[in-house]
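Bumping my old thread because nobody answered last time. Still need a sequence for this structure:
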């Protein structure tokens, strides 16, 4: 009886253990069910010698294997096992078709369980499409095309649209990164596109086309647009000639709305603006035009819209200037005020050699009389006209008819780019350095040397009190005259 019970218990235990084993096997089988096949697989050319393969992620996948077809063995060979959902196959032959497929896998207890293969996809490595393709007018009969270099390219093919054939036709083959199309019709629009190619053996393998670009040959922008003050109410705008232009349009420019309004058309290289109110900031630009049959083709606007405060007899200029101090040149801060025939110049003079240290002083011209005003001592004294003329230099005659505009050229000073206007009255040359339409620096040179004005700022606001000798200041003209005499 005991033996029968023992046998029965052993059988029960065996069944229980067997059931547990079956359950464990069932659970294990459920845990390592094969992953799905990758979907949305694609293959595209990455460079002239590589193809990029990509696909959608598979839920639960630990990684993926990518295969490439080998036409020699007529089998797919594994290229890589990785976790990413992209792979770039390199070292390929340009223009040759390659076929790929992929599959996902799961990893349990160090063992991989693989899913089905994706569909196969094929691609050829070809040169990339040229980037940064540009087309722009370079004159009344020319357009310049430009683009970035393409890695591995042997050259580039340019196509121009043929309106008669209603299609693009091959126009030029080049190894350069730009091309100038000349002999064109002013005002006519031309369409272009390009593609790169790589020569493999005797075969050219082409990239895709760029998006088409259009350009129209028009007159270039007038260069070196400058102004000359003619009077307190007028200025003359000057510019360089534009090749092939029939004439020029002068525009007033509104810096708020950024709208240019036509003022005048002319065939000259200058235009005089008259009737300007005092303390007015003048904004203007110029563009050339060419008449083709009866059609006027407008060119590019001049670079920037220049704004200048008109020298109408009222302004303030601040700068770091040079003065002669006992035979040596000293740089001091100077502010110059003008209002009609009145001029005042504030500065700081180093009188150390004379035993006075640094002293603030205002030099004043009322138009007929000249003074030096010293606020620290509350005194003033009259200056002889010849001394005043030397102090104020060209400012007393800033509309000197003998001063002529000589030209404008781009210059670089202290790593900053300027337009430099050159003026001359026969004995003194003046260089005006202009940045963003504002005068920033002046250099005046004559037989005695050079004076420089740095860090200039210009304003129409004027402190009228500088033109009046303060109440309570002592007139020491006679004392100064005795000391000097």
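Sorry it took so long. Here it is:
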């Amino acid at each position: 009886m005991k033996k029968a019970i023992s046998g029965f218990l052993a059988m029960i235990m065996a069944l229980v253990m067997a059931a547990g084993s079956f359950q464990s096997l069932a659970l294990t089988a459920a845990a390592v069910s094969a992953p799905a096949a990758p979907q949305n697989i694609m293959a595209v050319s990455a460079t002239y010698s590589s193809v990029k393969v990509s696909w959608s992620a598979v839920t639960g996948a630990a990684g993926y294997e990518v295969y490439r077809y080998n036409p020699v063995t007529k089998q797919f060979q594994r290229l890589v096992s990785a976790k990413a959902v992209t792979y770039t196959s390199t070292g390929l032959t340009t223009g040759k078709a390659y076929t790929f497929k992929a599959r996902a896998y799961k990893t349990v207890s160090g063992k991989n369980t693989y899913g089905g293969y994706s569909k196969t996809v094929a691609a050829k490595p070809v040169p990339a499409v040229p980037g940064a393709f540009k087309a722009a007018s370079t004159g009344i009969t020319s357009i310049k095309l430009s683009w970035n270099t393409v890695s591995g390219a042997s050259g580039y093919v340019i196509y121009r649209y043929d309106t008669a054939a209603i299609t693009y036709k091959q126009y030029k083959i080049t190894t350069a990164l730009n091309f100038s199309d000349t002999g064109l019709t002013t005002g006519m629009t031309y369409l272009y596109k390009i593609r790169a190619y790589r020569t493999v053996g005797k075969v050219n393998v082409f990239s895709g086309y760029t998006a088409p670009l259009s350009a129209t040959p028009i007159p270039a922008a007038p260069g070196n647009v400058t102004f000359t003050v003619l009077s307190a109410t007028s200025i003359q705008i000057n510019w360089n000639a534009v090749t092939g232009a029939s004439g020029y349009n002068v525009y007033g420019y509104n810096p708020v709305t950024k709208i240019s309004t036509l003022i005048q058309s002319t065939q000259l290289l200058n235009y005089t603006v008259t009737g300007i109110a005092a303390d007015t900031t003048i904004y203007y630009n110029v563009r050339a035009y060419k008449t083709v049959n009866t059609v006027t083709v407008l060119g590019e606007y001049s670079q920037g819209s220049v704004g200048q405060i008109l020298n109408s007899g009222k302004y303030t200029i601040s700068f770091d200037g040079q003065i002669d101090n006992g035979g040596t040149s000293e740089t001091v801060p100077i502010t110059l005020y003008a209002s009609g025939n009145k001029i005042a110049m504030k500065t700081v003079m180093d009188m150390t050699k004379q035993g006075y240290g640094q002293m603030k002083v205002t030099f004043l011209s009322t138009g007929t009389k000249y003074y030096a005003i010293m606020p620290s001592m509350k005194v003033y004294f009259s200056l002889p006209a010849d001394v005043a003329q030397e102090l104020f230099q060209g400012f007393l005659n800033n509309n000197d008819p003998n001063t002529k505009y000589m030209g404008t050229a781009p210059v670089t000073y202290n790593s900053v780019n300027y337009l430099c206007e050159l003026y001359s009255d026969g004995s003194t040359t003046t260089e005006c350095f202009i940045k963003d339409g504002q005068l920033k620096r002046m250099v005046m040179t004559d037989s005695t040397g050079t004076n420089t004005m740095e860090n200039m700022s210009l304003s129409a606001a004027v402190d009228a009190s500088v033109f009046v000798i303060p109440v309570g200041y002592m007139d020491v003209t006679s004392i100064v005259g005795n000391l000097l005499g």
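The domain at 42-123 is CATH 2.60.40.10 (Immunoglobulin-like). Let me know if any region looks off to you.
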